[in-house]
Amino acid sequence: MYIYGTTSQIAYINYGILFLLALSSLNVYGIIVAGWSSNSKYSFLGALRSAAQMISYEVSISLCLLPAILLAGSLNFTQIVVSQSKTCWYIFPALPACIIFFISMLAETNRAPFDLPEAEAELVAGYNVEYSSIVFAIFFLSEYNTMILMSALLSLLFLGGWLPPFHFLSFLPMWFIFSIKIGVVCFLFVLVRATFPRYRYDQLMDLG
């Protein structure tokens, strides 16, 4: 399918959002198995806290996707971005959903101020405590990959995806515009980490 004269997409899936939600929900199994197989009560406690946190906030993430789906009338990421080119970016009509989605992203990816599974004071880095070397690195790589994935999802649904913010910037490549938007959302992750203190676990679940 041609969008602005290019075919830069990898796959054209009509139910792309459902497919992405189904894949992202598999993270819980990996964390539970990692905490249980390390044979440490601290790791298992961290894994249970992480699983409860991720399952709780998957509900709010799924509900925050509904305004963008209803406005576009499609579950296809390409159709959602194209519909934003015809009207406006969905961050304007669906601003509360975008804010709640960003907060849920922080909790879903276990980033500060919701990094309870890795609370160093009481859990000694959570489910990572018995792991070292490349296995420890893979856990962190997966966490940062999830952070980039969620940033891309926010950019596609609410920030116009690969669409330029102004018409005179339309000469820029689509991949460059999309990468800039992902970088801005990732910067917000880091900004929140440096700004807010960590929540208590009961506060986290009450917020959810």
Short descriptors:
208 residues, mainly alpha, 9 helices, 0% strand
Radius of gyration: 18 Å
Average predicted confidence as pLDDT: 82
Given helix and strand content, the structural type is: mainly alpha
Beta-strand content estimate: under 5%
Largest sheet: none
Give me the number of helical elements.
9
Report how far apart the termini are: 39 Å
Helix content: 55-70%
Number of strands: 0
Helix-strand pattern, N to C? HHHHHHHHH
Low-confidence stretches: 1-6
Summed up, the domain count is: 1
Report the principal-axis shape. Answer: elongated
Which helices and strands occur, and which strands form pairs?
Layout: H1 16-24, H2 27-37, H3 41-72, H4 77-86, H5 95-108, H6 120-123, H7 133-158, H8 174-195, H9 201-207
Helix pairs in contact: 2-3, 3-4, 3-5, 5-7, 7-8
Folded structure, characterized:
- Helix 3 packs across helix 4 (77-86), helix 3 (41-72) packs antiparallel against helix 5 (95-108) and helix 5 packs antiparallel against helix 7 (133-158).
- The chain has 208 residues and is mostly helical.
- It contains 9 helices and no strands.
- Helices cover 65% and strands 0% of the residues.
What is this entry, summarized?
With 208 residues, the protein is mainly alpha-helical. The protein has helices at 16-24, 27-37, 41-72, 77-86, 95-108, 120-123, 133-158, 174-195, 201-207. The protein has nine helices and no strands.
